[in-house]
Write a structure and sequence with these properties.
Blueprint lengths: L1 E6 L3 H13 L4 E6 L2 H11 L3 E4 L5 H15 L4 E6 L4 H9 L2 E6 L5 H21 L9 E6 L7 H15 L4 E5 L7 H4 L8 H6 L6 H6 L2 E2 L5 E3 L13 H14 L2 E5 L6 H8 L3 E7 L2 H16 L7 E6 L9 H8 L3 E5 L4 H8 L3 H4 L4 H13 L3
Parallel strand pairs: 1-2, 1-3, 3-4, 4-5, 6-10, 6-11, 7-9, 7-10, 11-12, 12-13
Antiparallel strand pairs: 8-9
Bound molecules: adenosine-5'-triphosphate (ATP) and magnesium ion.
The site of adenosine-5'-triphosphate has 21 residues, from helix 6 and helix 14.
């Protein structure tokens, strides 16, 4: 049963559109929503194929609802804006906010509108079957997270990507979502000739194959979608588009790793929303521990399930007065893996060669390998 949600204050519009939509299709359920926000809630909860925001709805409310739907559902659900008239400017801003299309009602019949809605719903359903037909396309998405900078997120993400691709025989995609200051290119010795910025520019026609073309191939076999080379390009990269890119990346890898900036913003929440596991990285100093504790509390408040987040302690043998057990108690969670501090790490970072491959016998490489084996588990 395909579910289509329509939001518009005008009951006549709702009923007429519903009538045409259901007239010759038995397997369509149409749900009316009083407001765009309610439409978004229902669409996410019922996994609708399309949400239609009618011509009398408030456009700002429709925009924020569409952004929410596309952050939560990616291309599983198509947002459609129906407006009195549609010009290029409106179409562009609608697309940027996660609408699949904007349709003008001037000169259009209810049959035309219903055809556009049916097409959008069908495209969302096709997308689902192409990616494995259900919530969980087989890929596992893992976000490396900390609200603090410099704790080793990028070291971990780049090493995990390279190690899993070359030693554990999995297809790996690494997305660098530290859009302003992403370091994965440097850490993996890759040239940022193409980046996520290019993928976003081509978003309207983006599919997995095209996305693949925007990724840099590391010699380990990992594919990496690099951060933009110019920090100001980060602004044009919306959460809705990143959400779609994560979905497409799942077609290209068994494991999709996401590196993030050191903060908890909408972009990072989008990555966490789409993740099967979150690796929270902390180091052995009080500010890092305090930050980790607070950010994990925040994630719990936001309703993320227990068990989504796993703790990784980096630089765990530093000559500090804190014991790992104390850290676990303070953060209120069990540490999955402890990565020791080692001068080999900055040395490998500076050479652009992951330490896990370059110095496999070192303790730091062994603990990264242990973490990698955990990450590939279902
Ligand atoms: N286990 C380790 N031993 C020694 N040095 C380390 C270790 N892990 C990370 N470092 C060093 O710490 C620095 C910061 O690491 P990294 O860039 O991965 O942090 P980050 O959390 O990604 O920071 P940002 O949020 O600023 O991107 C690196 O240059 C690296 O050399
Ligand atoms: Mg980083």
């Amino acid at each position: 049963m395909a579910i289509i949600v329509i939001s518009d204050p005008d009951r006549d519009f709702l009923q007429r559109l519903e009538k045409v939509l259901t007239s010759d299709a038995q397997d369509v359920e149409v749900i009316h929503a009083a407001t765009p926000a309610e439409a978004a809630d229902v669409a996410i909860e019922r996994d609708a194929c399309a949400v239609v925001y009618g011509p009398a709805t408030s456009q700002p409310a429709a925009y924020s609802a569409a952004e929410r739907v596309s952050a939560a559902a990616g291309m599983r659900t198509a947002n459609l804006l129906i407006s009195r008239t549609v010009d290029a400017e409106l179409l562009r801003s609608a697309m940027r906010s996660g609408f699949r299309d904007a349709i003008g009602i001037e000169g259009a019949t209810y049959g035309d509108l219903a055809a556009a809605v049916t097409d959008a719903c069908q495209a969302a359903l096709n997308y689902r079957s192409a990616t494995g037909d259900d919530e969980t396309a087989s890929a596992k998405v893992v976000t490396v997270f900390s609200t603090k900078g410099g704790v080793g997120k990028s070291v971990l993400a780049s090493n995990l990507a390279a190690y899993i691709a070359s030693k554990l025989d999995k297809r790996v995609v690494l997305l660098d979502l530290d859009l302003e200051f992403g370091d994965d290119a440097v850490m993996l010795g890759l040239q940022p000739t193409r980046t996520i910025y290019d993928a976003v520019q081509a978003y309207e026609r983006l599919d997995a194959e095209l996305l693949d073309g925007f990724m840099q191939k590391h010699q380990s076999g990992a594919k990496v979608l690099l951060a933009p080379t110019q920090p100001e390009h980060a602004e044009s990269i919306t959460t809705a588009r990143v959400s779609g890119i994560i979905d497409l990346a799942k077609e290209l890898g068994d494991i999709v790793l996401i590196d993030t900036p050191g903060r908890l913003d909408e972009m990072v929440l989008t990555a966490i929303d789409r993740s099967d596991e979150v690796l929270a990285v902390a180091t052995m100093d009080l500010p890092s521990i305090k930050n980790t504790k607070v950010s994990l509390q925040k994630l719990r408040q936001l309703g993320y399930r227990n068990g989504l987040v796993k703790l990784v302690l980096n630089r765990a043998d530093s000559k500090v007065f804190l014991e790992p057990a104390e850290v676990e108690r303070a953060i209120g969670g069990e540490v999955l893996v402890r990565i020791p501090s080692d001068r080999l790490v900055p040395r490998s970072v500076n050479r652009g060669v992951p330490v896990s491959l370059d110095q496999p016998k070192s303790d730091v490489a062994k603990s990264l390998a242990e973490l990698a084996k955990h990450v590939i588990k279902d």
